Amino acid sequence: MTDDAPLPPEELERRLRAIGEERYHIHHPFHHLLHGGRLTKGQVQAWALNRYYYQASIPAKDASLIARLPTPALRREWRRRLADHDGDGEHPGGVERWLRLTDGLGLDRDYVTSLRGLLPGTRFAVDAYVNFVKYRSVLEAVASSLTEMFSPDIISQRVAGMLRGYDFVSAETLAYFTPRLTQAPQDVRFALDYVKREARTRAEQEQVMDALRFKCDLLWAQLDALHFAYVAPALPPPGAFRPGTPP
């Protein structure tokens, strides 16, 4: 096989999975602290508050992609994802379940949704993801969702570790994660089949792999921001959430 020859679909999948094994944020030091029960309640609150912006931005990201999808089948798939996060008017979606998590951690909901306590690094990373999906090719946008291949492992670690390590969380607090154990694999099957089918040239396959690296990097960057602000020097930037201080 020459360097510019397309990879067989199974080799593309193998390389995508290798990217996750190397770069997924399950390896980040903040992740180990969080799931190992070694953070304070304030540090866990900071994680949940900042992660809210990511969760709340996913529907905007998906809506921008729906507008560019060329077929009814593709639009139906992404409408399902939109409902998973926004809810359907009767059943709560992922955004509402995340707010129940921040409620359970004792954060004021109006403060969380106002985004006043957000770290700059969180805002820049999440906005970069939304803009990536909005402006890059449909193939790259779909490929950027493939971090879901690795999320069941991190969810299992997160729920088990936090229930074991923190007396201020409960199964109800962490109820956001339960539906994701079935939603994420469904999302992955569709997206993985799509990129393996639609990335027909080696250049397109490289774009797919680069899109997954980008998504892994921005998830890592969010934890970098949290670790630097709340763990390493424990000095949040001006205006950011400060544990124990009224907003």
TrEMBL record:
Pfam families named among the record's database cross-references: TENA_THI-4
Catalysed reactions listed for this entry: 6-(2-amino-2-carboxyethyl)-7,8-dioxo-1,2,3,4,7,8-hexahydroquinoline-2,4-dicarboxylate + 3 O2 = pyrroloquinoline quinone + 2 H2O2 + 2 H2O + H(+)
Biological pathway: Cofactor biosynthesis; pyrroloquinoline quinone biosynthesis
Residue ranges of domain Thiaminase-2/PQQC in the record: 14-224
GO MF: pyrroloquinoline-quinone synthase activity
InterPro entries: Haem_Oase-like_multi-hlx, PqqC, PqqC-like, Thiaminase-2/PQQC
The enzyme's E.C. designation: 1.3.3.11
Keywords from the UniProt entry: Oxidoreductase, PQQ biosynthesis
SUPFAM superfamilies linked: Heme oxygenase-like
Top-tier EC class: oxidoreductase
Any Gene Ontology biological process: pyrroloquinoline quinone biosynthetic process
Keyword presence, Oxidoreductase: yes
Family that this chain belongs to: Belongs to the PqqC family.
Function of the molecule: Ring cyclization and eight-electron oxidation of 3a-(2-amino-2-carboxyethyl)-4,5-dioxo-4,5,6,7,8,9-hexahydroquinoline-7,9-dicarboxylic-acid to PQQ.
Record's protein name: Pyrroloquinoline-quinone synthase
